[in-house]
Amino acid sequence: MSQTKDAAPPSHDTAGAGTDTVPAYSWYALSVLVLVYVLNFIDRQILSILANDIKADLGVEDDYLGFLYGTAFAVFYALFGIPLGKLADSWKRVRLMSLGLALWSTMTALSGFAKNATTLTVARIGVGVGEATASPSAYSLISDWFPARLRATALAIYSSGLYIGGGISLLIGGLIVENWNAAYPQGGPLGLVGWQAAFLAVGIPGIALALWVLTLREPVRGAMDGLPTPEDPAPFRGFVRELFQVIPPFTVFGAAGRGAGALALNLLGAAFFAALAWALWRWTGVFEQWLFLGVGYYAVFSWAMGLRARDLPTFRLTWGSPAFMCVVLGYGTVAFVAYAVSYWGAPYAERALGVNKTDLGWFLGAPAAVAGFLGVILGGRMADFLLERRPEGRIWVILFGLVAPIPAIWVAYTTDDVVPFYIGAFVAQLLSASALGAAAASSQALVLPRMRGLATATFFLSTTLIGLGLGPFMAGYVSATNGDDLSVGVLSTLVAAPFGLVLLIAALKLVPGAASSVVERAREAGEPV
To answer: What confidence score (pLDDT) does residue 7 get?
Structure first.
C-alpha cells in the first residue's frame, strides 16, 4: 500500500502492529462487552420465538410482525445512534453504555405489559434508543484496547454476542412461554401470558449488568494507534448539536442555520422522501412501515448534509468516501438477508413444519448460537489472516458471507423435513456470520480514532435502515400477500444479493488505497493531524 512520507501512522491497519502482547485487562473488558451484546440480542431477537403468540393475541399480520421486529426498532436505533455515536466520541464510553443498557432492559421488561400493538411498538422504540448506545461505545473501546493487528478478531469476538444472544433467546423464550402457559393456562400474576412473562424475564437482568459495566476502566482514546486524543471539555455540546441535526422537525432549523441553499436542499429532501413514502404506502397498503422509514431516511439525509458543513474531514472519510460506502452498503445487503432468515426461522418452523417452541429452542436456537459464534470468530481470524497477505483481504470475507449462505437458505426454506431445515439454518448462520467482523474492522480502518463512534453509527445505519428495516418486513409482507407463505417471503429477500455483489467488488478495488491514505485525506479536508 502506498504511504505518505509525513503521515504517522500512515495506516490504521498497520498502527500498533508491533505490539506483541495485549494486557489481560483488555480481554476481561472484552468479555464484559460480549455479555452486554448477548443480552442486547436476547432482548432484540426474542420476538422471533414470540411472534406467533403475539400475532394470535394482538390480532396482527406478518407484515406488522416484520415491522415490529425491524423498522420500529431500526429507525430509532439508527437515528439515535448518530448523536449517541458522537457522544461516544467525546464522553465516557463506559458510562454511556451502562446508561443505554439500563434503558433498553427497562423497555424490554415494559414490553411484557403491552396489551395492544401500539403499546408494544412504543416499547420497541425505547429498546431501539437504548441499544443505540452499545456498539458505537463498544467499537470505539475495543479499538483502544486492542492493536490494529487484532482488531478484526476482537470485534468478531464482541460480535459473537449477536449470535449467542440470538440463539439463546429462542431457547429461553421457548422454555418460558411453554412452561408459563402450562402453569397458568388462563394467565398468571397480573394477567400475564407466556410471551409477556418472557419479556420480563429477559429484561430485568440487564439492570444488574449495567452496574457491572460501570466498573470498567475507560482507556485513553487513540493511544493504541499512537494518536492520543484529549477529552472533549464539553462532550454534550456535540451530542445536542447532532440531536438537533437528525431529529425532525429540528432538522429544518438546523438546515436554516447553514443558509438559504442548505434550507432549500433540506426541504427538497423532505419532499422527496415524503413522496416516496406516500407512493410505497399506496402501493403496499402498509402505512406505519413507510412512515417510519420515510422519516428515518429524511433524517439521515439531513444529518449527512449537516455533517458535511460542520465536520468536513469526518464527512469526507465516511459519506464522501466511495470505499467506506461500498463496505457499509455491501454489508447492509448481507444483513438484509441474514436478519430476515434469523427472525422468521422460528415462526416458519412452527407453522410449516409443526415444531413446538421447546424443540425450536434446542434444535434451532442453540445450534444457531454455536454457528454464529463459530462463523464470526473464524471469519474475523480469516479477515486478519488475509489482510496480512492482501490489502483487500477483509473484503473477500464480506463477499464470502454474502454469497456462500444462499444454497443453505434455499434448502432450509424449501424442504418439508425438519432435519434439512435445521441443517440449512445452521450452515446459513455459520456462513453469513463470517462477514461481520471483517466489515466492522474495515469501516474502522477507514477513519481517524476521533471518528470511530460516528463511523460505527454510520455503519449501523446500513445494517439497520437497509438490513433490519427492510429485510424482515419484506419477508413478512410477501408472506402476508401470498397466503401467509413464509417460505416465499424469506426467499424473496435473496434479491438483495446481486446488489451486494456489485458493491463489494467495487470495495475490493477501492479499500486498499483508501485505508493507506486516511491521514492524508483527513489533512486535505482540514483535519489538524
So the answer is: 33
Q: Sorting pLDDT into bands at 50, 70 and 90, what band is 20? A: low
* Cα 472 from chain centre: 14
Taking the C-alpha atoms of residue 43 and residue 105, their distance in angstroms, rounded to an integer, is 8
Q: DSSP letter string over 318-378?
A: TTT-HHHHHHHHHHHHHHHHHHHHHHHHHHHHHHHH---HHHHIIIIIHHHHHHHHHHHHH
Give the pLDDT confidence score for residue 235 in this predicted structure. Answer: 85
- Residue at grid coordinates 438490513: 467
Q: Mind listing the pLDDT tens digit for each residue in 245-279?
A: 888 888 998 899 899 999 999 999 999 999 999 99
pLDDT interval class at 407 (50, 70, 90): very high
Q: How far apart (Å, rounded) are the C-alpha atoms in residues 370 and 381?
A: 17
* Exposure of 109 in the CB half-sphere (CA atoms within 13 A): 12
- DSSP code per residue over 221-254: TTGGGT---PPPSSHHHHHHHHHHHHSTTHHHHH
pLDDT score of 339? 94
> Which long-range contacts link 426-430 to residues 24+ away (Cβ below 8 Å)?
426/367, 426/368, 426/370, 426/371, 427/371, 428/341, 429/163, 429/341, 429/342, 429/367, 429/368, 429/371, 429/372, 429/375, 429/405, 430/371, 430/372, 430/374, 430/375
Question: DSSP label at 227?
Answer: -
Q: What separation in angstroms does the CA of 248 have from each of 258, 281, 527?
A: 16, 20, 29
- Using only the alpha carbons of the chain, give its radius of gyration: 22
The single-letter code of the amino acid at 422 is Y
Confirm if 171 and 66 have CB atoms less than 8 A apart. Answer: no
pLDDT at 14: 41
| pLDDT at residue 5 greater than cutoff 70 | no
Model confidence over 204-237: pLDDT tens digits?
Answer: 999 999 999 999 999 988 878 777 777 788 888 8
How far from chain centre, in Å, is Cα 210?
20
The whole-angstrom distance between residue 394's C-alpha and the CA centroid of its chain comes to: 19
Nearest to 470 by CA among 499, 442, 441: 499
Phi-psi region for residue 478, left (φ > 0), alpha (ψ -120 to 50) or beta?
alpha
Write down the pTM of the prediction: 0.85
**CB-CB contact of 309 with 440 (8 Å):** no
3-class SS shares of the chain: helix, strand, coil, % to 5:
80, 0, 20
| Whole-number Å distance between alpha carbons of 153 and 133 | 22
